[in-house]
## 1
Amino acid sequence: MGSIVVATFVVLILFGLILVGIGAYRHSHTLAIAGGAVLMALGVAWTLGLPTMHRAIVRAAPPMNAWVDSSRHSVRFVEVAPDVSLEVLDWGGSGPPLVFLSGLQDVAHGFDDFAPQFTDQYHVIGITRRGYGASSQSSTGYDVATRVADVVAVLDTLGLGRVALVGHSIAGDELTGLAVAHPERVSHLVYLDAVYDHSGILTLLAGSPPPPPMLAADSASPAAVQAYLLRSFGMRIPEAQLRAIGRYDAAGRLTADVTPSVIDSLMLVGVGHPHYAAIQAPALAINSVVDSMPNVFPLWKDMSPENRAQALKFTATLQEWAASRTALAVREFPALQLLQLHGANHYVFDSNPAEVTAAMRQFLSGNASQGRPTS
């Protein structure tokens, strides 16, 4: 349908241009005005109809030879505010609802390989927050309170009352915020390297050395980008997520990010000390523990002496930051269960899937030990 609409617009634009051209050639004001009217009407129609046409094009069936996400989920869009809709993935399954929320710069497709493991006991869904991937980009609404309200709006639309929430990285703020504001909606909380006070995170990250240069071959396709990230950071990001967060040209080459950096900045404005003490729901935190510089910088041997020294300093700072934030959570979070995975990376559910899956299953079934930090 999207292709037909666009083709029709192209034909009508050409018709309008022809009228204008003939009018100019024959010095006919009538034809020129008629052609201009056609072009003006098309401009107005295009402007007013762009969101609808965009959705029609994006959601149209892909060509026969197009890449297809093999993860077994359905996709729908849920309106959470005027002109703001969020992408919701549903992997199916029967049982209590289990809701996945992604980290900063990520989308629900980041759980494509992990979330389906739980469909044998749970109804599993994932939500892409506003500003990212296929969800709407708005000028406001990136504060924690609005992000929490967006999640609640999705749950209401889907008819989900009490849910278990799983959040990665920055989504820990949404887990904590929702559990405090709406305790009746939360049965369990699972923090995947996410139970941190994120204040000062920008200052922390500013101390990291520059990433390895991304060569032309590294951006030649989503698969090439995936290989670059795995090689450079030890993180294997699902291709569906890379396709959702990046813009690629007709040849498949990465050309830009979908989300402008200003949205990332707005996400980090106002983050601060989480109100852990007010949480009533049982919680499990699965944290990565950086044991050495190679955990963070797999290509450290290829670094210049200056960058290697900076990487060593950053690793020490990161270790201190994570340890202090973890100690804070253990001290203030009632009955928090903690699992620390040494040598894991930030995407603990990908670097250590067996341990994370087993811990989550035990916790969600109610068989985990209560409140004892483990490592």
Note: Residues 2-58 form one domain.
## 2
Amino acid sequence: MKNLVVKETIYDAAVIGAGPAGASLAYFLSDLNIKTVLIERKKMPDTPVRCAELVPKAFTSLFKDKIVGINNEINFMETYIEGKLINTIKSPAFILDRNIFINSLIREFIKKGGTFLNSSVFINAGYFKYDSKEYGSGQTDINLNTQLAGKSSSDPSTEQYCKVWLISIKQNERIVKLKSKILMGADGPVSTVIKVMNLSAQNSGKLLKNDFHNYCFLAGFQENLAKQKGYENNTKIFFYPYLNHGYGWLFPKKDSLNIGIAVSIDSVKKDGIKNIYSKFKNELIKKKIINGREKQNNCISGLVPVCGKRQVISKNNIILIGDAAGLCNPITGAGNFNAAASAKVVSEFIDKALKSGNYTILMQINEEFKDYFGRSLDHAREKRIILEKNWLKNDFNDLIKKTWISFKDYWCA
């Protein structure tokens, strides 16, 4: 095959995706001296930043070094329903410049000997089989569609062979193949690595394919506006009936404001995301929360995953983290903390598996994630189901109080 490059190096770990989950995992693995390759499809990771950039203060405790990229400190969250301030709660948080934060992690990863491949699109992966006694003999590229079906005499999990992933990536016009003992999917909610795991694109096979986006995502739109004087340094959350199944937000940075909405896919198909956002922004101007003369620095749109945690996180030496694992909160849409926390947990399991040579340890991640993330994410998913079933059917004020995190009723069963 023309333009085919096969690298002989065998990595301990290959991480697909250099967002908050993947960059954090690469950073943690480099601290453990684990030979890692970080593969990112974009030239510049995390650009544009498709995130409101808010993280809880506990986020910083995940990293041993002082993190780079904290833009602003927040102490309180205000919640508004139909334009009226309903409550203000203490909510210690930071707002990041997330691309600065992620780039700092990647720099540290490279400094400690990690391999970073940008502009590299993950295509597929299959088992690479080689004789453990004499490297090079019996080399076979096992077909992906059959190698997950079960053990056989040619399965690389049999004793005489070492199990290694042969990973195909595309760089410009050439195909590069890399070898790695463990494959990590940190490539977002619509993950390509999930296909290698032979899992369906959603948590349950009951969903029709055409319903996947409607069920699992909200549509998001956000502006970053140049900040003028007179803004309170609190986060603000807004609920209006026309922000179907979602909400609006204002998160103040030092010199700018992140203002955005997340709404149902159906409402976007009907009314258009920019039209819905314009209506919301006009409400903020009318309420004098912003003055309407702020200059736009940039705007972004994207999907906000709200489907909840996947049941299978680790399988066949493949591990999912961050949004690929379904760790974005189904009510708030927040995912940065869980992305980094999942990376921290997984790095420790990988270290144990590599040191012991026992890769079945990785299967314990499924139960660990259930214990670590399951309760809060399952609760949030239950609240989302209530929210979507009852939107505009009952008292709107009461519904929001039962399904938003700043109200005590949210925390009730």
Note: DSSP finds ten helices and 17 strands in the chain.
## 3
Amino acid sequence: MKGAQRGAQRGPRVFYGWYVLAASFALLFVNAAAHSTFGLLVKPLQSEFAWSRGAVTSAAFVNLAVYAVSLLVTGRFYDRWGPKWVIAGSAALVTSGYLLMSNLDSLWQLHLYYGVLAAAGFGGTSVALFGSLMGRWFEKRRGLAISLALAGLPLGQFVLIPLVSDAIAVDWRTTCLWIALTTLAVNLLLTFGVIRGDPAQLKMRAYGGGPDMHAGEHVALSSPQSGSTAEAAVPTHDLSLGEAMRTRSLWLFTVVMFICGAGDYLLINHLVAMVTDTGLTETVGASMLAWAGLLGLGGMLAAGPAADAFGNRLPVAATFTLRTILFVMLVLMEGTAVFWVFALAMGFTLPITAPILPALVGKLYGIRHIGLICGFVTTVHMLGGGAWSYLAGVLFDRTHDYRLVMLLSAITAALAVVCALLIRDERHLPPVAVSEPEGAPGVL
């Protein structure tokens, strides 16, 4: 009895947030199959139904547009009710979409099943939600924790994409069925068995967080009389989405994320079709996409610590500098080796903004509304991905290659570099707390 009392006094040896992190990793690992399958289905759907590439990728546009809206909805639901029922309901929608896809026979059904149902479910199983979840559980080493959790997605892509590709080659309809059932089982098991939305539910604080961490924060402001930095008597609070939208930094980062989504989903939805157009096999294309996912694991693990050490702007600017070079390379060069370099290097950059998004939002605006703000920014990210996935298919149908697509992608990536460098990477004040509305440091 005394030993049990001493154990109770010591409390748990392992901080529960690490279990939440591990479960988030596993959920993203398994959900990678559903999130990354469409690019493998483009050519099989073209072949079976004689649809153009623009027609097939129009379903990707619908999917990502609905996905974008679902992020706003799930972000608000997450902030209000926590992640459990959000993840469970989303998994049910993804399962329904893929179950119905196993029997589709027309384009409107592809739009409905994949474009609407599955997409509505993607919002609750996205990196945005799990990044926000890590933001609640970790104050210290937040960037590292987010990177570790979100690493499940690229590692899942590396492991599962080759398996899904081989299964699709045998029967894509049966593959959709198995994706549906696996997604539902794993999501429900881990969500109700492990996931907790907030340390307060277990009467705990965030890892590294002090008592009343967000109840009475004060901002260090420069004293106009002394010229020194002093603790101001102005309390600040976590900014709402509306308040954050009155800052220039949010809109700069939103532009960056729109361009980021365009590049991400160009790779995910077009890489396999692009390389097979040159005569390479679908197995080689799937291998490139899988290895891109593995390299994304390196980018994911590097992004959080880099943001912790150097701030959030420099890793983002470096990411889009590299992307600019890669897109220009595909305009000027071609060949198997060039495709491998493009796939691996793009894969490394693919998830870098994912852990930086909640880390940046938490730093600039606080965590109370982190789900909704991250949902808004990720919504724009998805809209960029959907629009460019579709337009890339249309431009391919008209030009019969991807050179124009790559040139436009290079131009927009260079724009993202400029926007990233202009972000103010520090805590922003609520606009109502600033006495000088123009030029004050809290509103730009």
Note: Confidence is low (pLDDT under 50) at residues 1-9, 212-235, 433-444.
## 4
Amino acid sequence: MGPSDPGAPRLTAPLRVARSVAVWLSAIAGTGVLAVLALTALLLAGGYDAERALRALWEGSLGSSYAFLSATLVRATPLILSGLAVALAFRAGVLNIGAEGQLLAGAAAAAAVGVTWGGTAGAATPVLALLAGALAGSLWALPAAYLRRRFGVLEVISTIMLNFLALYLVGYLVRGPLQEPLHIYPQTETIPAAAQLSKLVPGSRLHVGFALAVLLAGTLWWVLQWTAAGFRLRVSGASPRAAASAALINVARTTSAAFLASGALAGVAGAVEVSGVTYALYENISPGYGYTAIAVALLAGLNPLAVIASGIVFGALEAGASAMQRDAAVPSVMVSVVEALIILLLLAMDRLRLTLGAVTWWNRGGDPSQSVGPREVSGAEAAT
């Protein structure tokens, strides 16, 4: 009985969602296991005490409720938000590699709001900081979106260049207009308590930014699945020519809007990091969250709900890497190597799936109802 048969059982929407989430959760869990195995092999090859290092990894990420809440979930929060930014852009066919720069722009804007208005705006300051971060991230994506729409400039190139520009801008701000009053350290002064995000769980470092990230993930999933705007975005990303000719969609406007919304999400990630974790802006405030977000989004299959789980996996790896370096004298860059291997594996598996699907499609006489067609492009393939 084929999927197109009238007698085939039809799944209800909740069951389809549950099945999709279950598939991605199992894939993410398998990737986590694979990451641990790859890390073990690297540790043994490097002559490190693998047992001690893995114990430190576990204790620093999942070994206790405090480690999970205050390390893993805190690290996962900006990864989820920036992962949503990448997933949204990729679903629209926009290869936004600039989440890192947009995150830094959002962090700078939130720090400026906190330092300037933290003592006068009171409880409204965190909201203003988040809004400023979203606006700054969107504005930072604007040049690349304009160049893409007006002149056809590849956004991969323009967003990477904007990443470096944002990095240098932060360096200028913390040594110039926003430097702390004594001008000793290259950072801003600490934002007032009124400008800081409140704690989500008492006695831990977990702040309400994590709840915001989960809420935004659910909202983005709903928009993509159940709204006309989400349909236009998905169709534009899947096949721009078909979207323009058959669905009468303004593809350029849709993809530009998705680009700016993606920048806003990454900007919120930076604002959350300043308002909820560091309480100040300084150089290297991001250890590469915007780049890791690409892996987070790809591992989740560009599914906003699955981004939550994949963000937590990478958050655990990041938190465990710090613990390994501190307690087992293992360079944290080991985990970065593992993350790179995960990205390569995801791309290889996606390419294999597309190749096998194209072969099946050809062997069955090119009937599009039988298998995936050779023209179908997934988000992971688009990232290459």
Note: Residues 368-384 have pLDDT under 50 and may be disordered.
